[in-house]
Amino acid sequence: MKILLVGDEARMRRLMAFGLAGPSDQPSLVGSLAELGRLPNLRDYEVALLDWDMRAEEAGDLLSRLRQLAPALPFVALTAREARRADALAAGAAEALLKPIDIDAARAALGRAAEASGPREAPPAPGVSAGAASSSPPAPAASAPAPRPSSELVTRSPLLRRQLLVAAKAARAMVNVLLLGENGTGKTHLARSIHEQSPRRARPFVTVNCPCLQPQLLESELFGHVRGAFTGAVADAAGLVAAAEGGTLFLDEIGELPPSLQPKLLRLLQERCYERVGEARTRQADIRIIAATNRDLAAEVSAGRFREDLFYRLNVIALELPALRQRPEDILPMAQQLLSDFARAAARRLEGFTPEARVALQRHAWPGNLRELRNCIERAVILCERELVGVDDLPNLVASSAAPAPQVGDFVTLATLEEAHIRRVVERAGSFMQAARLLGINKTTLYRRRRRQDEGTLPFDEDLRAAMTG
To answer: pLDDT tens, 322-332?
Structure first.
């Protein structure tokens, strides 16, 4: 890609250029309006990466000038503040990424933005004047290219294939979709895939992380607010519903939505209308809703923590993504694909896995699902010093799966038997806290034992964070 990097922090521009530079990437750096004006052939760029945390006046001026010089150039915004994502999306950003930026995520977002903008206008054929070209009948509009499926959704599993077929039908039908499954099973990838297969694919795909903010802040992020609505509201904010106008609003971890917000979301689903915080005016929303959760929402309804009417509104089409242990035929192909991707990014030559490593990968229960597999392979690429990844390059929790687990009555120490028992319970439990309850020990004690056993390499991101914070 030919990428334009725009921002007033020289260090940020250099770091992003270094991270994005590759055999096929050509980043150019711009830090001011003057530099932008001196840059030749702006229309040749495929996509821009814009630091949205520049001084407001200069960021706006730069974007306005960029629109004048290259009207069709798509851009991806970077910001350190969740509240500014909606402003960037409302200003036309294809995506808005939060800092600190993951280079792979930035490269993927830039690729999606460039691909979504479609092919560039071809110059007139030699010997044909611009006037003659414009007088000829227009060519029929090309249909939008079919989006390439995420590697996490390429599968040999009949379980997942059936769900993907239903997802493709749901994408075209424009109904609300509820994605169910454990953490790390690819719900976000499937939500984006549904959006990209829908008639709304040219419009924004906006993600709301329900557990990340306090209820009053989440309401403001979701619906927007007017100046003076609360302390710190120094200017109007459009909100993520407005940013998703015409596109898709993805409500991640909807089971964490506070009870106070559930009636307002229900109204948005039923009537497609809402009010900003501190404003009496009712606004209309043209959006498609996709929600995801790792909770049993039916049980949450029975317990009185989730509204029954909201559950049925979301649950028009429900898709349950199988855990990685339920699709064992995908483990080795996905591991090989991830190895190729990470090795290419690190400029390494890695051919595959040793037989022992393949056995370990196949036998491991993968309680962290795709996220754990991805972290495992990324670690292996960093540590491996040969052309084949061996068992010693894998995390201890995965490497230990290469050998059969000790059984009661084997000639092993009690400590070895206890370690194997704890590992098996943790692998099979639905969460880290559930494993602690089954073992009859405190979750902090369990965390410390697993940390000693595996030198700190654990896949339970959310549950471990809860355990560490008490």
So the answer is: 999 899 899 99
Of all helices (H) and strands (E), which one includes residue 33?
helix 33-38
Per-residue pLDDT, 24: 52
3-class DSSP state of 236: coil
Topology classification of domain 325-402: Helicase, Ruva Protein; domain 3 (1.10.8)
Query: How many helices (H) and strands (E) in the chain?
Result: 21, 14
Please name the helix (run of DSSP H) or strand (run of DSSP E) that holds residue 334, with its range, or none.
helix 331-345
Question: What pLDDT is stored for residue 451 in this prediction?
Answer: 64
Q: What is the DSSP letter of 402?
A: G
Residues 255-282: b if buried by 16+ CB within 10 A, e if exposed: bbbeeebbeebbebbeeeebbbbebeee
- Taking the model in full, what pTM does it have? 0.62
Q: Where do the structural domains in the chain lie, given as residue ranges? A: 3-116, 151-226+236-320, 325-402, 414-468
Tell me the average pLDDT across 24-45. 74
pLDDT at 297 over 70: yes
Cβ contacts of residue 212 below 8 Å, gap of 6+?
Answer: 82, 218
